[in-house]
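Long-time lurker. I teach an intro course on protein structure, and each term I like to show students one example going from raw sequence to a predicted 3D structure in C-alpha cell notation. This year I'd like something fresh instead of my usual example. Would anyone be willing to generate the C-alpha cells for the chain below so I can use it in lecture? Attribution to the forum is fine with me.
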Amino acid sequence: MQSVGTPFGKSLFVLGGARSGKSRHAQTLAEAAATDHATRLVYIATAQAFDGEMEDRIARHRADRDDRWRTVEAPLALGEALKSEDGPDVVMLVDCLTLWVSNLLLADEAVAARVDDLVETIARLKGRVILVSNEVGLGIVPDNVLARRFRDAAGLLHQRIAAEVDSVEMVMAGLVQRWKTPNADYRSQND
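-- Reply from a regular --
Happy to contribute to a lecture. Here you go:
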C-alpha cells in the first residue's frame, strides 16, 4: 500500500476493481487526514441491503470503522448528504459511487442532473472528501440494455469526478497508482 502521509489535496477519487483494496486504502487516508487536518470523520454510505449477502458486506464495513466515524446513509441524495455534513473540520469518505449510480438507475432518477449536482457540490466543499468507485469499463460490453446504461453512466461519472478532484488513484491487488496529483494540469481529450 502507498504511504499514508501522501497528500491528496482537498479531494481524492479512488478507483479500483472489486476487492482490490480501494475502500481500505481510502479509509486509511481519511483517518490520516483527520489526524492532521480535521476533527470529524464522516462515512457516507451509498449501499442498500437488498439481500443477506449485502447486509453482511455492510456489517463488515461498519466493523472496520472505529467510534471516530459518523455514518450517513445516502443511497440517492449524495450531494445533499455532502452539503449537510460539510465543514472545514471534516473529512468525508463516500463509498461508493458505482452503487450510487446503480441506485439512481433502479429508482429511475435523472442521473445526469444528480451527477451535475455532485460535481458542483464537490467544487464548493469546505472540508476534504475521498470518493471511492469501482472501475467497470475495463471488461466486455454488457449484453443487456440496463447493464450498458449502468456502465456508460459510471464511465461518464468517473470522467466528471476525475476532472473535478485534486487527486486520482487506482488500486489493483492492493497496490496504489497515483494518476493525478494536486495542482497538476490534466486535460481530458474531451476538453
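Some talking points for your students: The helical segments are 22-37, 52-64, 78-85, 97-106, 111-124, 145-164. The CA atoms of residues 78 and 118 lie 7 Å apart.
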